[in-house]
Design a protein that fits this description.
It is a multi-pass membrane protein. The chain contains 15 helices and no strands. The protein is mainly alpha-helical.
Length: 419
């Protein structure tokens, strides 16, 4: 704990150019043009070869990636800051995001509002051994791998080289998890899915009020922790002034939180499900194995409606299109800020990324999603499993703080910067 006589240094991500730059750099115009061109080509391809929904999802993915990068909106760093130095600013931004999300999701789910006329359903999953173990090891993995599912994608868009390693092993881990999933979900104890809205008699209105009370209580706890530990504040990131801030420099966390909630709600109304990431990784890994002659179709994970995805183009998969959009949106945002740059990979962070990616991938399949699908999407859908996911991921984060030094990764102290 920091004594009151000590100067409290701001929390920052200053050692990584993807997260922090000492000043605004000149826009990388060639890269911006390239990112826009690739996005337009992909948009036209989707419009010609896929359903009308896919181009819309690509645009939403671009906006999600753009928002994530501009605000450096993190889930990994938010949990780590709270557990290591007691700073809860980013977690309070999560609460704002979730409050806005449940406010938007409630009428959409209650009335089945949809842009394309299909069914609308939130992410409501069982609570059991699979969820608890999966979320816990995901929490460890994201602290070793250097980012969560969304963080991995937007860091790749920003040029953080080691995250390509994390993504590769994320895909491997989630593919293995898909193969093992029937054991975890069918042979081990679990409850039926529990919705605060439909399983409790509260309805969406009552569940909305309860959700807001929970978010308020969590925010209050983070403020108490900060005062108790005299926690450092988050260092401000450089930004342009006025309307130029939309394109260059950092966005306020709370503004980004609301933007992400709105974009998630639009995703729900577009494809009938909230934003997700990791199911596409399982599809990509499975298709690679299928190419080499492995009988993926016999896996329990790929039975029923999921079987069609194996026979279709990856561009027919809505989650894949969203993921491509996130990477491209983050790339354009990083280039607009003059921040795109491939970074150095050390032996320590390479092996940490291998282990972290495997743990995140495997954990995401067991836990019915990642920080986006299970935590963000689950809580926004009024599912109890989303809250359990968050608790267990924070537990995994706490353990990971003791593992990071084994790979040469920093463990911030009360007056150190978080990196």
């Amino acid at each position: 704990m920091v004594s009151h006589a000590q100067p409290v240094q701001p929390v920052s991500e200053q050692k990584d150019p993807v997260y922090r730059s000492p000043a605004l750099n000149a826009p990388q115009k060639t890269l911006i043009a390239g990112g826009i061109l690739v996005s337009l080509v992909l948009l036209i391809y989707l419009a010609v070869t896929q359903s009308a929904m896919q181009p819309v999802l690509l645009i939403l993915g671009l906006l999600l990636g753009y928002t994530l990068f501009h605000a450096r909106f993190g889930f990994t760093s938010a949990f780590r800051r709270l557990m290591s130095v007691g700073n809860g600013q980013a977690l309070r931004a999560h609460m704002v995001m979730l409050a806005a999300a449940v406010t938007l999701f409630a009428p959409i789910l209650a009335f089945g509002l949809s842009f394309f006329g299909g069914e609308v359903a939130g992410y409501v999953s069982p609570v059991g051994v699979s969820l608890i173990v999966g979320a816990f090891i995901f929490g460890i993995g994201m602290q070793l791998g250097g980012g969560c599912a969304s963080g991995t994608l937007y860091a790749i868009g920003g040029g953080r080289t080691v995250m390509f390693v994390t993504l590769l092993f994320f895909i491997i881990g989630t593919t293995i998890g898909a193969y093992h999933l029937p054991f975890w979900t069918e042979d081990l104890p679990a409850t039926e899915p529990v919705s605060l809205a439909t399983s409790t008699g509260l309805g969406y209105g009552g569940a909305w009020i309860v959700s807001l009370l929970i978010f308020g209580a969590i925010a209050a706890v983070t403020i108490f922790i900060e005062r108790k530990r005299n926690s450092p504040k988050v260092a401000p990131l450089p930004s342009a002034k006025g309307w130029k801030r939309i394109f260059r420099g950092s966005w306020p966390l709370f503004a980004a939180a609301i933007a992400l909630a709105v974009l998630n709600a639009l995703t729900l109304m577009t494809r009938g499900q909230p934003w997700g990431i990791t199911s596409a990784f399982a599809l990509w890994g499975s298709k690679v194995l299928q190419f080499f002659g492995i009988d993926i179709a016999s896996w329990g994970y790929w039975q029923g409606e999921s079987a069609m995805a194996l026979q279709s183009s990856i561009f027919a998969d809505s989650t894949t299109v969203l993921n491509f959009g996130v990477i491209l949106g983050a790339f354009i945002a990083s280039a607009a800020g003059g921040l795109f740059k491939f970074t150095k990979v050390t032996k320590g962070n390479f092996f940490a990324s291998v282990i972290g990616g495997l743990l995140m991938g495997y954990g995401a399949r067991l836990a019915f999603g990642c920080n986006i699908g299970a935590y963000f999407g689950g809580i926004a859908s009024f599912s109890l499993h989303g809250y359990i996911w968050g608790i267990m991921a924070i537990g995994g984060t706490f353990l990971a703080l003791y593992l990071r030094p084994l790979f040469g990764l920093s463990v911030p102290k009360s007056n150190d910067s978080v990196c």
